[in-house]
Each structure stands twice: as structure tokens, then as C-alpha cells.
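User: Please fill in residues for this 212-position structure.
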């Protein structure tokens, strides 16, 4: 089986609407999700949620761990709960096959070697500011549609996912600087964006009514 065939099979698991709802809920959650919470979010029974969650695990889209939610240990503490989180790694299919990732890496390497960080940031900030959806709509929804998976952590809006994850790992300073500038452009009005890197999350966080 080719890598493309494998990706087709993996993403084909999400053809079921219940699995899509469950995957989106678990993937967007800042913490691991249990079966009861996932079932409630998807509007299905616990047994049905458990069946589909485990299918997503088999496909490599979710990962599991076991933990007692009560925090108690020892006899009488009960069985550990099965918890789900988004699995590491990426799955992408292009029909017909494309190689945008190769072009992105080459462009990033050229920009980094030429020292064009500020020019890239200026272009990203301008692109964010000119985005019609950000100007007309809810920023949280705009970020969600762009793959950032935003969630509230108190008064801070954190981003569960980095849409530029592969490039950010290879060209961290360049891509994270571009990402910050892009979000500064998108976050007009009362919003402000700042670097606040957390393991596994986007390096930028946003807040309202604050300035750097």
C-alpha cells in the first residue's frame, strides 16, 4: 500500500458524520476527553461514542491514555477511565497529487537565508489586516476555520493547533514571527496577540483589552 493509499484510508474513517463530530471535539479540546464528555458533545450514546472513538484510534487519528478522573488511588478508587486526545502526526491527501510542502520549505529557506524576516512579517500583517472575514466576523470563528482550534483559557484565547506546524519545526523563528504578525493583522480592534509558546500548541495567544 502506498503512502497516498494509506492517507485515503485514514481520512476515509471521517466519512461518518458521528466520527467527524467526535474527532473535532477531541481534537479541539485542551485536555484529554473521556467517553461520557465526548458522547454528550456529539449527541450520541456512550456506547456508540466508544465504538467510533476506538475506530478513530485504530485509524491513527486519536491516541488514548488511562487515568482515574477522581484523582484517588488504591483499593476502591475504581477503574481508570479511557481518555482520548488527538494523535501526533499529519494526514493529507491531494487529488491530483501536489507538493506545496516542498515549495513552502524552499521558500522559507530562501527567506531565512536572505534575512527577509521583517519583510515577511510586514506582508503577513498586511494580509491579516486585509482579510475580509476577520474584518466582518467573529475572530474566534475565523481562527477556527483557519485550523487554529481556538479555546478560552480564562481570559486568554489559546490556539490548540499550529497550521504551519511542519515549517515551524524546521524554521521556528521565521515561521513563528510570520504567524504572530499574521494574527496581529487578523486581531483588529480590542484584540492583541503575543508570543506565549506552550508545548504542542500554537506559539501565539490572544487577549482582549490588552496591549503589549
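Assistant: Residues filled in for all 212 positions:
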Amino acid at each position: 500500500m502506498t503512502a497516498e493509499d494509506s492517507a485515503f484510508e485514514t481520512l476515509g474513517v471521517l466519512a461518518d458524520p458521528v466520527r467527524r463530530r467526535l474527532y473535532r471535539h477531541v481534537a479541539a479540546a485542551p485536555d484529554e476527553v473521556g467517553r461520557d464528555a465526548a458522547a454528550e458533545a456529539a449527541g450520541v450514546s456512550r456506547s456508540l461514542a466508544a465504538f467510533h472513538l476506538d475506530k478513530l484510534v485504530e485509524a491513527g487519528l486519536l491516541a488514548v491514555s488511562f487515568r482515574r478522573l477522581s484523582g484517588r488511588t488504591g483499593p476502591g478508587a475504581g477503574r481508570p477511565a479511557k481518555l482520548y486526545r488527538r494523535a501526533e502526526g499529519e494526514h493529507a491527501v491531494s487529488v491530483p497529487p501536489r507538493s506545496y510542502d516542498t515549495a513552502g520549505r524552499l521558500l522559507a529557506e530562501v527567506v531565512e537565508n536572505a534575512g527577509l524576516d521583517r519583510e515577511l512579517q510586514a506582508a503577513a500583517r498586511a494580509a491579516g489586516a486585509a482579510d475580509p472575514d476577520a474584518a466582518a466576523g467573529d475572530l474566534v470563528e475565523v481562527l477556527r476555520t483557519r485550523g487554529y482550534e481556538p479555546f478560552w483559557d480564562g481570559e486568554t484565547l489559546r490556539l490548540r493547533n499550529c497550521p504551519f506546524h511542519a515549517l515551524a519545526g524546521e524554521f521556528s523563528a521565521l515561521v513563528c514571527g510570520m504567524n504572530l504578525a499574521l494574527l496581529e493583522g487578523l486581531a483588529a480592534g480590542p484584540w492583541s496577540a503575543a508570543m506565549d509558546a506552550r508545548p504542542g500548541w500554537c506559539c501565539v495567544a490572544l487577549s482582549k483589552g490588552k496591549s503589549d
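For context: The first strand starts at residue 33 and ends at 34.
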